[in-house]
Amino acid sequence: MADVTALAASVFGFALRPSQRSAAEAVTGGRDTLAVLPTGSGKSAIYQVAGLAREGVTVVVSPLIALQRDQVRSLSGLGLRAVLLNSSLHAAQRAEVLATIRAGETDFVMLGPEQLANDETLRELTGTPRPITLVAVDEAHLVSEWGHDFRPEYLRLADVIDAFGRPPVLALTATAAPPVQADITRQLRMREPQIIVADFDRPGITLAVRRTRHGLPEDQAIDDRTVEVVLAHQTPALVYALTHARCESLAERLRLDSYRVAAYHAGMPAAERGRVQDGFFAGTIEIVVATSAFGMGIDKPDVRTVVHAGVPGSLDEYYQEIGRAGRDGEPANAILVYDPRTVRIPRLLAARSRIAAGTIHAVVDVLESRSGRVTYQELAEASFVSKHMVERVVAELLELDALEADGHDAVLIPKRLPRTTFASVAEAGDRHQAVLTSRIDAARHYAETTRCRRAELLGYFGEHYEAPCGTCDNDNTAAAAPSGMSAPELPGGVGVHHRLWGPGTLLSRDEHELTAVFASVGYRHLTPAVLANGVLTID
């Protein structure tokens, strides 16, 4: 097996961190590997080194077009052959890239997730004269319905990897709580994977929550407190808002205080978003007020402050976004501006993501009227349902073994669907909705807790932390200080069973609280009394 440490130094000119080295060695040796590493820890270095060590074609699936382009530039600058295939290419550019793949003249293929449904792309990749020896899945939490930004197109990955001859799989993410880790390995059909989870703690980031003032309208309360917080902290700064309108209003307020500020959200033209991003990197823009559309692939080392104007949809999302602060190793601040009224926004977005009963009925009715092979597009046209929603319904049916996948874009329908098909999909939707709601509740719990915020945040990811941390706003309170009581001898990660909610996993515990996650209801914060009275038992 190639020496990945020597390869990293001689070809790429960098030294691998211990977690990078462990992941690169595992996948170079042919082991499926899931690496959960903090934002800014150099995940791309792993597939660069391992891909070169495996001496074939490495396919990298990533939703980040800007990052794909950066990777192609850097690899090409080292004399390695790298191409990208995504929706941004013109027809002539696409034809040129496919010809390069067909000729076997590439080492790395950067693939946008939409290409997983493109027959031409997959035909060229499966027929390449050089074998595909590694598939890297960046932002792997997107494959998991437990993840904070689930994308149905990622569900095709396992079948695509099979079509490539099942080379080793490297899944990479910065935000994967234990249930997300388990779902990633299952959805990608990883074989006895090596799971490498780095320390989630970012001790250089001070954590705080600032409540809004009572008696003010919601919009004014949020804007006033957010502007006050930004004025009290250093720039460069990122301010995350929940809506496009809040981005614009906050940006306008901050401009009045003589800051160089820009808004950034999906409602803006792509060219304008690009100018904002470039200006932030160049330092001509001090503060970006953005929705969660801004961030993935952003690596500006000197961000000093990250402010959230309202409760995010999950702690996964929150952790990833505050992780953009202090990457240069210097102190940074993460402040959540909290008003209980803002929780309705992520709740509304979660409700909109639910698969409507009418949608399930429409797709199932078409399936029941047919047999044999049917494509997602045919199902969408026959049911008058968007292809995106068809993919979600079919994903649930595949999970229930009611259908069988036939390649990346079609399914095989049995002669008779189970009579319980509709009810089963609806129940799965209810469970998914419960999980989404529980993640919002966990974010609200973080905002309202009186215990050490670092312990609260890390506990969500299954990491036990001995409070107090000394760098959060709660550490001077009695609740955050050590109480002298001994915590139950229960390590995170053990199986538990709740009398009402069934099986689950204990994520963290201290003398005040247990945090556990259940497949039926999602995340729950419990008092230690549930162990004493037998409501919760240890497997």
TrEMBL record:
Positions in coiled-coil regions: none
Domain Helicase ATP-binding: 24-194
Pfam families: DEAD, Helicase_C, RecQ_Zn_bind
Keyword terms, alphabetized: ATP-binding, DNA-binding, Helicase, Hydrolase, Isomerase, Metal-binding, Nucleotide-binding
Gene3D superfamilies: P-loop containing nucleotide triphosphate hydrolases, Winged helix-like DNA-binding domain superfamily/Winged helix DNA-binding domain
Keyword Metal-binding: yes
EC number: 5.6.2.4
GO CC terms in record: bacterial nucleoid; cytoplasm; replisome
The protein, known as: ATP-dependent DNA helicase RecQ
